[in-house]
Amino acid sequence: MTTASPPPTRPRPGAVGANGNGPVHRLWRDPLAWSLATLLALAWGMPALEPLFAAAFPTLDRPMYEQDSFVALLGAHLLLVAASGTLAALLGVAAGIGVTRPAGREFRPLVETCVAIGQTVPPVAVLALAVPLIGFGPEPALLALTLYSLLPIVRGTVAGIESVPASVQDAATGMGLSRWQRLRLVELPLAAPVLLAGLRSAVVINIGTAAVASTVGARSLGSPIIIGLSGFNTAYVLQGALVLAALAISTDQAFGRLTSHLGRWRPPG
Question: Is pLDDT above 70 for 62?
């Protein structure tokens, strides 16, 4: 006589299975989570590292940057990068769409030349030219960062729209879609991963470039770097660079995650 085997037990929702694929385990292995945790730990916990910097730089009287909190500098830096990135995205995507339309194709060489010049001119030179006109503060930095961001966004927009197969566009036209509907419902969604790659490059580059904004009186993570360089304080430079690098890595990984999701997305039906 055989005994019935007990029914298999189902794992609890959220529990870690034998293959270790639970949400907590996935979060533990997530590089984006680690980079964000490192960024927050550096921004909030930098004062706790003062004994470490004092031991590493014993000749410095003030090894810890104390003119401003790194949390406040991080917030100001993010605001500056977000504002310049949003403005550059609006201008760059509009320009990229314009030169891919039949009425704007003849202006494509001119637009590409102009945005290339914007990235060729160093941001420091743009700041030097803008300060006499609009004064010190975040405004000249916003102008310089916006001009510096246009090239990868315009190129990403143009490349993304041109990558849409002609058969897809013909099918959309055959369905009776207008040019605006075809752009909004077909071309831009399919071009989004390539367009986002251009925006990703622009934002990550701007995170590092925005450090020069401190030279014209704007608050940013470049403040300890600039003060450290002018005062021969390597500890200040290292502290600002650590937070800046953690921010750039976190932002790059976040854009990578978003691009991956867009690449897997498929329209319903």
Answer: yes
